[in-house]
Specification:
Mean pLDDT of chain B: 88
Structural class of chain B: alpha+beta
CATH architecture of chain B: Alpha-Beta Complex
Mean pLDDT of chain A: 96
Largest interface: A-C, 92 and 92 residues
Strand content of chain B: 15-25%
Order of helices and strands of chain B: HHEEEHHHE
CATH class of chain B: Alpha Beta
Bound molecules: pyridoxal-5'-phosphate
Strand order of the largest sheet of chain B: 3-2-1-4
Radius of gyration of chain B: 14 Å
Number of helices of chain B: 5
CATH topology of the largest domain in chain A: Aspartate Aminotransferase, domain 2
Number of domains of chain B: 1
Oligomer: heterotetramer
Low-confidence stretches of chain A: none
Distance between the termini of chain B: 28 Å
CATH superfamily of the largest domain in chain A: Type I PLP-dependent aspartate aminotransferase-like (Major domain)
Distance between the termini of chain A: 47 Å
Strand order of the largest sheet of chain A: 4-10-9-8-7-5-6
CATH class of the largest domain in chain A: Alpha Beta
CATH topology of chain B: Sufe protein. Chain: A
Number of strands of chain B: 4
Strand content of chain A: 15-25%
């Protein structure tokens, strides 16, 4: 068993007072905190090895290149990709999905083709597909979620019927950032693969919270963000199966991704360079590698259990509050709970909780269509990570009781 | 809790719990929609303008207590006003929520003075007003609190 | 006069030995080093204020949002933009140019239109235009550079004739990363503006080295990278004139850039949010703001003089080496020199210089078409920044003499 | 300077200064182009293959001393060899430049053992070989040292 108390000490930002109370940081689905070792990896890199990567033959540049390509290999191992070349560094999940939608989409989609999404997608796994659909004449189709007051999971019974021959790609989230639902990724990919449909998984909410093995899942693309897995902002990546990447045109053009440039045409390097135009964010990529080490040091099975346990505990303790509506499944779930009250708006809750030092997120969670479908204008979300405790859930429940009383009683 | 009681004054809680002039206005001849994309707050304002005066006004939508109470209170203040008077009142209100200074004359608008210590909430307080002013101008574009002039 | 010796002490990475010699870092055009204050701003942010920006109503999120938007305002002031909303944060120069080429280009270019570039552009200000030209049917045209053995500057006499009515956009670099030429940006923009041609400036090599006032220059877009101006990797920005930005479609889709999303269509927020899909790289943006403070603390006039003086001194001292060919103008120039020998290839020079602790860059500098035009396969480049000294130039010259002797003599 | 003298051995400097078999081969029946996009190094290899043997071979291009000397030395080694023998020789050479181990039999290829302490230069040393092997296979695509198998 990991020493969770000691783990908490690894995160400097947690040890502060907010509005006179110890900080209770429950906004991890938006971004996690970063452990000392990640912050220090970054500073140390800038203090010792900083130089531009590639095309550099001096000592610092070679050190930086080795560290950067080492981080790529580390990330590949983290998700069990077949080779480092299958990892493309990006700014995060959103850029990863835009890159795939634009590059794969422009080469593979034509009028009449269908992109299958689900009704629980984050705007980042929805708007990029709207944009490429407009550009190519392809159409969007949605796998529905089960309606209000049921679990809010995917209506899997409808999937077979929706995977028609026009469907060229199926994109879905591994874990919902709004309901906490964990989708059966391997099963969904198997169904799509059987029909030669390309699959793209939004791993923003899974990557830092559970073991992820892209080959066991059997997906073609898997996107994620560093800042949601104890690493830093500005860096993320996606996995792409080599054969697909090799056939994809570049996304951005510029230094580092070409093998030959003439005034009127250029030839591209192979992956991963083809998709990383310009100076890459090598320092933050190296910090991402350090975060992989850190999380594997704890053990991702352990993290999944820890975060899931806290979410289930929170679900249970919150469920007794008067008038609460809890989203997502009661049992197995990702490390977050999301809830709404008829009488008190999520933003008022967040403002009140902040007065008690509790960091929550309220609103549509970049999930407007799902909110509309569930008949909600927003929810309040508490999301957990390795450093959160059962006591913090009690603090949350006490604060919520006080808020409800304020709005009901006065 | 002192700042919060300043923010959520009785007037606000009261308007939030029992909003005035809430609902569609069947006789409206002007409508505008406002939204605060940052929060997801929504607000429709319905006006019946007669001559240059607001004869009737109502609102609906969803959002936090601040935005709902502000829209509700606004409807009580704007009824019977001309567009010019409405604009002036908004300026006064905007001054209150951004500076925290109480209004010169006693007015329920003063209840929103506490908003100024919560800058993230100013957009909530002004959402309904933006929509109303747009409706008065006959501007068909949805009002948004993300405009550069806010 | 700034205390240059003290400034050198601000940069931790400089104080190390490489291959048994004190590091002489002359690869600043590739990336600069970062001062302690920038590195510390980043660590401190992660240790204290880290939370996702926007849509957040709790204390840390509001602090992070204020710091991020504060950085935007700081960058706006740094280049004298009219408003913070005219600053869009990106990964760097390359992404900035890709964004403008794709977004502005897709909305404004049609078959028959012409994009005017110059023959001295970095691949990052060339390939993005090739890509959008392919997509829209527009054509590329080049303002020539003066040929071999002359200064390698732009042939300005040809500009008027090339600015024909078909030209919709004129993109050029402010300072060449290969020759050190400083282009007369304001003059070029005035000529274009008189014909209602949109202008885009690649500011990668100017931003950290001289005062830049986008309104005095009169350009429509100005792109740059943080890592070349004493800030960190993964962050950069571009300036866009408000009226142009307002009319441009989004580039990437996702969270944070929409005002309303439905399953089949979305509405966009105004600038700058429209162009910043997903979680922005807020921490590195804040570090970029700190770098602006740092550079203005020294004074950009002073930096321009310092770097230019070193480059001129280097030009003079190198010019006596047997068989050397020096690129770019003899007098006024940016802070770099680039040179070639018939007998010794640039990569061999870089490898030998590294043995003496000197960091140089050799090759085509992402400038292949210019190399071909000048009849070169590559050059060796020494590029300077605030911490470099005249003594370091002597170390370079001594090392080069030794290298020439090794290859000639043995 | 000891590492550098290991890298730039006499054999290499000599081949760099006086490259063997440099220039186009008018009688060539196989040609391949190689480039190292990271460095900008270029190399063309020209072959006249008779039966299954390399009857004549030459190269041209531009690049650092390592890449030019390696291509030059390669031409002297490949002349008269079959494709299978050439492949084996390349394997041996690749082993030398990546491990630094001297060849079993005495050979000028051993001069490139010093390359292994400069990993960034391995691609320079193998550029000409990649092109030659491609030419032998009759592969029309330009060889690039960025291939995944390198
Ligand atoms: C003139 C010029 N333009 C563009 C770039 C690209 O900048 P970045 O790699 O930071 O995107 C560079 C630097 O490599 C440059 O020197
Ligand atoms: C499910 C999901 N997808 C995508 C994203 C977008 O990630 P990012 O903002 O890091 O690009 C998020 C987080 O906001 C998310 O929760």
């Amino acid at each position: 068993m990991p020493d969770w108390k000691k783990i908490r000490d690894d995160f400097p930002a947690l040890h502060q007072q907010v509005n006179g109370h110890p900080l209770v940081y429950l906004d991890n689905a938006a971004t996690t905190q970063r452990p000392r070792v990640v912050i220090d990896t970054l500073s140390r890199f800038y203090e010792r090895d900083n130089a531009n990567v590639h095309r550099g033959l001096h000592a610092l540049s070679m050190r930086a290149t080795d560290a950067y390509e080492g981080a790529r290999a580390r990330v590949a191992k983290f998700i069990n990709a077949a080779a480092p070349e299958e990892i493309i560094f990006t700014r995060g999940t959103t850029e990863s999905i835009n890159l795939v939608a634009s590059s794969w989409g422009s080469a593979n989609l034509k009028p009449g083709d269908v992109i299958l999404l689900t009704e629980m997608e984050h705007h980042s796994n929805l708007v990029p597909w709207q944009l490429i659909a407009q550009r190519t004449g392809a159409k969007l189709r949605y796998l529905p979620v089960l309606g209000a007051n049921v679990e809010g999971g995917l209506d899997l019974a409808q999937l077979d019927a929706l995977l028609t021959p026009e469907v060229k790609l199926f994109a879905f989230t591994h874990v919902s950032n709004t309901t906490g639902t964990i989708n059966p990724a391997a099963e969904l990919c198997a169904k799509a693969r059987a029909k030669k449909i390309v699959t793209m998984i939004d791993g923003a909410q899974s990557i830092g919270h559970m073991p992820v093995d892209v080959r066991a899942i059997g997906c073609d693309f898997y996107a994620f963000s560093g800042h949601k897995m104890a690493a830093v902002t500005g860096i993320g990546a996606f996995y792409g199966r080599q054969a697909l990447l090799d056939a994809m045109p570049p996304y951005q053009g510029g230094g580092g991704m070409i093998s030959n440039v003439d005034f009127f045409e250029s030839r591209w390097k192979p992956t991963p360079e083809r998709f990383e135009a310009g100076t890459p964010n090598f320092a933050d990529a190296i910090a991402l590698g350090a975060a992989c080490d850190y999380l594997d040091g704890i053990g991702r099975d352990e993290i999944a259990r820890h975060d899931g346990d806290l979410a289930r505990l929170a679900y249970e303790k919150l469920s007794v509050l008067p008038g609460i509506r809890l989203l997502g499944p009661k049992g197995e779930r990702g490390g977050l709970v999301s809830f709404a009250f008829q009488e008190v708006h999520a933003h008022d809750i967040v403002t009140f909780a902040d007065e008690d030092g509790i960091a929550l997120r309220g609103g549509h969670h970049c999930n407007q269509p799902l909110m509309k479908k569930l008949g909600l204008t927003g929810t309040t979300r508490a999301s957990f990570y390795v450093y959160n405790t059962a006591e913090e859930i009690d603090v949350l429940v006490t604060s919520l009781r006080r808020i409800l009383k304020f709005f009901a009683g006065s | 809790m002192s700042d919060l009681s300043d923010l959520y004054q009785q007037v606000i809680l009261d308007h939030n719990r029992r909003p005035r002039n809430r609902g569609k206005l069947p006789t409206a001849n002007r409508v505008a929609h406002g939204d605060n994309p940052t929060c997801g707050d929504q607000c429709n304002v319905y006006l019946r303008v007669e001559g240059d005066r607001i004869a009737e006004i109502s609102f609906d939508g969803s959002g936090c207590a601040i935005s709902q109470a502000s829209a509700s209170l606004m409807t009580t203040q704007l009824k019977g006003k001309t567009a010019a008077e409405a604009g002036k009142l908004y300026e006064e209100f905007h001054h209150i929520v951004t500076t925290g200074e109480e209004p010169a004359e006693i007015s329920d608008l003063g209840a929103f003075a506490g908003v100024h210590t919560f800058p993230a909430r100013i957009k909530c307080a002004t959402l309904g007003w933006h929509a109303a002013l747009n409706a008065l101008k006959g501007d068909p574009a949805p009002a948004t609190t993300e405009s550069h002039t806010d």
